[in-house]
Each structure stands twice: as structure tokens, then as C-alpha cells.
Recover the amino acids of this structure.
DNA sequence: GGAAGCCATCGGGCGTCCCGATTGCGCTTT
DNA sequence: AAAGCGCAATCGGGACGCCCGATGGCTTCC
């Protein structure tokens, strides 16, 4: 039963029988009959089929909610028993927005320091993907913006508020300024993240409120590209404080704080809401709370 | 896996391998190996064993929480799919405190009127048992006091507040009084419920606050016994309004309202807290809300 | 019209589950 | 101290279900 629910979840995620089977390490016929049997046991058609996968039926959508809950709880049961067997151990999968990667790294390092038998996978993902992956049980927790998208049934632990810095070469005209207003950035050659990324949308809003348009001459989905561009030309970019400090370190770059908008851009840890928490997840939430920059 | 979790829950409930097996309709060896396999799969000893059942280990206690969640959600998945297949149908098991039985009856009747394909089992139980049975998945919902014991992870729907009446024969000295104070009951020959029942404890408290002792000459765990005693002798009893009206109807008995203590004694529907609700349970909660006596 | 992709079905081998019978252990009784 | 009894574990077998590779029917894309 649980195995079939896992098949169903994989199928809903992959939207394709073959790929779902591969992702579970079974063959396509096995998955096919598994879904059929699940449908028989529940007495309901879950999947719209032609000769191709055609999406879930309405009943399938409802069943998916329960399936995720059941399979998730089953994994949590296993995890917790393993933890009680061999101490706090296991594997945590995190998905993190690019601008919070240094924080994720710190969090993972500190956590691993305290609990050496817990290992990590840290993926860089867009904020919308993080919520999907949480739903699909592909990750155990994420780090993302807490105040933009509707978050759903999750627990959050605030970590910090993003404040931004202009990153430019040491020989740039603005390099020696103490602070800057967003309004002063209008005439610069900007490298920014691509518009589908939340961080870029936040920056766009700041520009808009300053009466400017955030026209980036170079866009990328990687912060490394942004900084390396700044190094090689007379470009500038805008990055959160911590990440800017990390990427600029040891390079001939200057960082100039931008007037911060304290209302928003709160970043924090996001985990599935559940009762009770497994020891490992509880420990992660605790570690995040310790790490949180005091407001 | 789920089957084994059901075995584990049954074992925790029955505290006895043989009885647990019978309650599941399987043999004792099957249950025995099932538990063993569950322990192997989780890598943890769940049950303390000598040559007898010796209680759950601490890990077993923790695992039981998850097992109940998983098995409960699995049943809810099945229920919901059946509902979407053949409309609102199925079976609801309620456990109800004795003094609320008439309300339970009304609730079940009205619900069945609206949804004829849903059938009911209504059990009379003490309030503490109701919570245990909810935990053990033996019932789907209960009717009990909302404000006395700690309720745990449940949803509640208030139904009414208990107000009490003295029940006596028509020829009793107090039969014609409009109202009574608790303090006036000190000298009467009382039949009351047994002290382990919550209703009796509430009445005890009322007596205590009136400076009296609630010494019952006859005790029973059945309200039928109480009323039939009142009929045959010069006894009196104390019952909630609705139940008193029901039991006294057509008999030579008088009902005299007692000064009510509006603070407490709230009675309502109790169901496991869960997200989302199955259609049947949602409908029951809705019906309870409609039925609730306006405060 | 041919090729490729996709899902369903088929048949066989293997694993697992369940049951009845029996054994082994510990407590109680005499 | 020995017998009796209740309880859980173990054993051996028969049956069922699951998984896989192979294949077939259908659709879509060149």
C-alpha cells in the first residue's frame, strides 16, 4: 500500500510513467500495475489516461494530499527510529535560494559540527521550486523568502532580513561612497539575476519605488556570473550583504550599502508542518533559531 | 507495512498478543511475526517482552504516535475515495457520555436524514474512555465535556451547556417548586451516577460549593437505574435537562430546575484534529454546528 | 507511411505472508 | 517440588502477490 502511494506521488511529480518508474528504481510495468491496483483498492480512477499520461483526476488530486501525508509520516517514523537507534544521524536535503547559499552553508556546517553523523545535500533553487519540492517530499527543508508567496502548511524560522549592497570595482566612481540611495543607480550598467527569480523581483520593486526602471544589461541565474562580470568590466551588481561579502573577498571590489527597506525581504528556514517533529528536524529548527540574526 | 502498523496499534491497545490478534481477525503467530518484522524494519525494539507482553519500549511509545497518524490517514484516504465514488456514505462510530445520549440520538437522526447512506454506531462511554478510543481509532468522533480534561489534538464543536434538574415523584414535597438551590438538597435520599463518571464529579463539585456532601444512597453507572429508583421509592436524582425530560416522559415524575452554574459543563462533539477533513467528518461537524443550541 | 515514444498486458520466477501445530518459558497452584 | 496453565515464539507448508523482461496496441512526430 505505502509502496503504491509512493508510486502515485512519483507519477504525479514526473507526469510520466516511464520517468516515475526510473526515479523509483523500478520498471515501468511494475509502476503501471501498481497504479492500477491502487485505483482498484480505492475504487476510484486516479489518473487520466489515453495512450499517454493525461494528468490526475479530481479524485487523484485529493488522494495525492493524503498520499503525501501518509508517505511523509512513514519516512518520519523511520527517521525517528533510526535516530533513536544510532543517535542523531541521517541525511537532510535542503533547497535554498541563491542569495542565501552562504547562510545555508553556515547552517549546515554548524549543525554538522554539533551532530557529526548528519549529512547534507544543499541545492540551489528558485523560491517557487522550493515549495513544490517540499510538497513532493523531495527535500526536508528549504531556505527562502518568508513574506512573499503564500507558504501553505509549513513551519518557518526567520534567519535574517536581506539588506543590499552595490558591488563595483575599486576604481569605480561610486566605490568610496559610504552609502547609496536606490535613486542613484539609474545610470549604471547593471548585471542582475534573471526576472523569474524572486530576488530580482525584489530589486525591481526597489527601483520602481525610486522611480526608475531596473534595466539590466546582463542577466544570469547565477550570482557567480554577476560578480565575475563586475570584475571584468565597468559593470556593477546588487547583492545581499552576506553573499556580497563572500563573493567579493580577496578581489579588487568595493561594497557600498544601499538604503534598506526594513519592511520585507525576510529570509528563513521552511519545513513541512507536522506534529510531532522528528528529532533531526527539530534539531535543525533549533539550530536555525540559534543562528538567527537578532532583530 | 501499514498492516503491521495496524497490528502494532492493536497490540498497544489490547496489551496482549492473543487478544490483539483476535481483534484483527488473524492468528497469534501472524501477529507475532508481524511485530517482529516491524521491529526489524525500523531497527528498534518496540515491545518489552518476557514470556508475556511487557509494555512498549520508549521507542515504541514514540512509534505509536506515528503509527496512529499513518493508519488514521490511510483510513481517511479510503473513506474519502469511497465518498467520492458513491456519495456521502459509510459508517460513523460515536462514543458518548451517558447524559448526552439523547443529543447523540438527535444528531445521528438528523444526519442520517440528510445523508441516508451514512450509518451510525453510538456507544455509551465514560468521558475518559472517549479520548482513549479516539486515539486508538476505535471511534470516529465522540460527545463529551469540553472543559474538564485536557483534550489533546482534537477538533471540538460545542453543542450545549448542561443544566440540571431534580427528578422526583409527583407526590414528593419538592415536586411543585419552581426552582431549587443546591443547598436545599442536603437532606434528600439521592441516587446518582458512580463517582468515576465525570457527570457525578460535576455534581459533587456543586454540592461541595453549597457546603454539602454528595452522599448518594444508591449509585449506578446507568441513568435508567437512577430514574427507575426514583419511581419506586421516595428517592430523588439529578439529571441534565434533556435527559431528564426524555426519561421522565409519561411517568408520574416532576422535574425541578436547579440553579445553574453557567461557567462550565460545556458538552460538545469531539473529533480527531486532522487536515484536511474527510467529507463525512466535515458533514458531521457541520451538522453539530447547526444543532448547537445558540448560546 | 515509417519510426519512435508511451502505456497496458502477459507469463514466469521469486519472495512473502498466513495459518495450524508445536515448543519453550514463567507463573501459579497444590 | 512438581504439575498445570497461560502466553508468546518458532516451524513447516501452501498460497498469494509482486516484480521483471518481453511484447503489443495506440498515438504522435517526421
Amino acid at each position: 500500500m505505502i509502496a503504491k502511494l509512493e508510486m502515485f506521488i512519483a507519477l504525479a511529480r514526473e507526469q510520466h510513467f516511464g520517468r516515475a518508474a526510473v526515479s523509483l528504481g523500478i520498471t515501468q510495468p511494475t509502476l503501471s500495475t501498481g497504479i492500477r491496483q491502487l485505483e482498484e483498492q480505492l475504487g476510484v480512477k486516479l489518473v487520466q489516461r489515453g495512450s499517454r499520461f493525461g494528468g490526475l483526476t479530481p479524485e487523484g488530486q485529493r488522494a495525492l494530499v493524503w498520499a503525501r501525508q501518509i508517505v511523509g509520516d512513514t519516512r518520519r517514523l523511520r527517521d525517528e527510529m533510526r535516530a533513536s537507534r544510532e543517535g542523531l544521524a541521517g541525511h537532510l536535503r535542503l533547497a535554498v535560494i541563491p542569495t542565501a547559499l552562504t547562510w545555508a552553508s553556515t547552517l549546515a556546517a554548524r549543525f554538522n559540527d554539533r551532530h557529526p553523523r548528519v549529512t547534507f545535500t544543499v541545492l540551489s533553487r528558485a523560491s517557487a521550486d522550493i515549495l513544490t519540492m517540499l510538497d513532493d517530499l523531495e527535500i526536508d527543508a528549504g531556505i527562502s523568502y518568508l513574506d512573499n508567496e503564500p507558504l501553505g502548511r509549513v513551519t518557518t524560522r526567520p534567519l535574517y532580513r536581506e539588506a543590499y549592497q552595490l558591488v563595483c570595482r575599486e576604481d569605480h566612481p561610486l566605490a568610496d561612497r559610504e552609502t547609496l540611495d536606490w535613486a542613484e543607480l539609474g545610470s549604471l550598467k547593471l548585471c542582475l539575476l534573471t526576472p523569474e527569480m524572486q530576488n530580482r523581483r525584489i530589486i525591481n520593486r526597489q527601483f520602481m519605488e525610486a522611480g526608475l526602471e531596473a534595466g539590466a544589461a546582463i542577466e544570469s541565474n547565477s550570482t557567480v556570473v554577476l560578480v565575475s562580470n563586475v570584475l571584468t568590466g565597468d559593470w556593477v551588481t546588487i547583492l545581499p550583504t552576506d553573499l556580497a561579502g563572500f563573493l567579493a573577498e580577496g578581489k579588487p571590489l568595493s561594497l557600498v550599502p544601499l538604503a534598506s527597506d526594513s519592511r520585507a525581504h525576510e529570509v528563513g528556514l521552511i519545513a513541512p508542518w507536522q506534529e510531532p517533529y522528528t528529532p533531526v528536524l527539530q534539531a535543525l529548527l533549533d539550530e536555525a533559531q540559534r543562528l538567527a540574526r537578532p532583530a
In short: Residues 3, 26-27, 29-30, 33-34, 50-52 of chain B lie near DNA strand C (CB under 10 Å from a C1').
